[in-house]
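Hi there,

I know you've been waiting on this one. I reran it after we fixed the sequence typo, so this is the corrected version. Both the input and the resulting structure follow.
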Amino acid sequence: MDFDFSWLLLGLPIAFVLGWLASRLDLRQLRLENRQAPKAYFRGLNYLLNEQQDQAIDAFIEAVQNDPDTQELHFALGNLFRRRGEYQRAVRVHEHLLSRGDLSRADRERAQHALARDFLSAGLLDRAEAALQKLEGTAYENEARLALLAIYERSREWAQAEAVAQKLDAAGQASYATRRAHHLCEQAQELSSQGAVDAALGLLRQAAELAPEAPRPAIDLAALQLRAGDAAAAFETLRRLSEVAPLALPLYAAQLQQAAQGAQRVAEAQGLLRARYAQAPSIDVLEALMALGASPSQAEDGAAAAAAPAGAGDNPRDGYLQHLRHQPSSLVAASRWLSRERFTDDAQTHAPVQKALDQAARPLLRYRCAACGFEAHQYFWHCPGCQAWDSYPPRRVEEL
């Protein structure tokens, strides 16, 4: 039987046409799918720019469903969940990324960092700590260390905080010497409360060497020396501090006064306190001077002694009057001067007037954080409001 070549000639064009149609259909389907994903993506971006986060999330979810292998969409979706406070959904997105075997190293580190931020935002500090520790040696190492430092300081784990701050210090991007000194002081405070005074003294000396211009190590060291009965060592510690940190003298003026009396160095302490008071009048420095039996100004003492009758300068309230000459608006000095007055003609009205003045002056005795404005009667080295270090000026609200 002979083969009819006419069928072959007729079938080749038909096969070519069918193949071409099939390829066009596949190409059209591919283009349609590719159009759908970008449209959903750009729609999500548009919603995001218009701060319509709910609609943006829906659009990104649609884009992820159309193209589940797109990492950027997953990252965008996870960040949106975190910003909306849906931390569990953000965690699931980033954990899904980490479970993928085809993820590049850079994207895996990025997903690990995003997961740690999810845990931090959710307040899951233990899980955040574990996630941040996995970023050691990555491009996010420095950010992870800063976050770990904040966690340890917030949870008062001072030994771990000092270890992380030491790594940051060694990296050379910034100096953490003063912050490390604070960590050592916190550890010393805990040891001192447990009765381990010698270990506490060792940590405080280490902190003073680490940050010689920071006032806290010397102040805490002098306090322990006073407790141990070594007033001479305490006075010498505070005297050296007054040379490198004179602005902080109001914080340790009372300690300086106690150490001077115990070490029999009253005249030297009076000179230090008078010099600081002349530069910046302070109620704390004033009261330390008055406790040492002196008034703020030596020159004023001589003039007053020449003009006043015998015994007129012996009243300790005269110091408050001199302070009012320097600070006429000082309600604290006026209230404390009035509290030492003795009224014989109208004694019954003294108590309510004094009470009203004391209540009005009490807010002026607070310290105020320069970073967040948090006020407290106690001086804080670490602000409980914003967690900043050394953010409180060493002067009370009235003196700012």
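Quick highlight: Confidence is low (pLDDT under 50) at residues 30-37, 299-314.

Best,
R. S.
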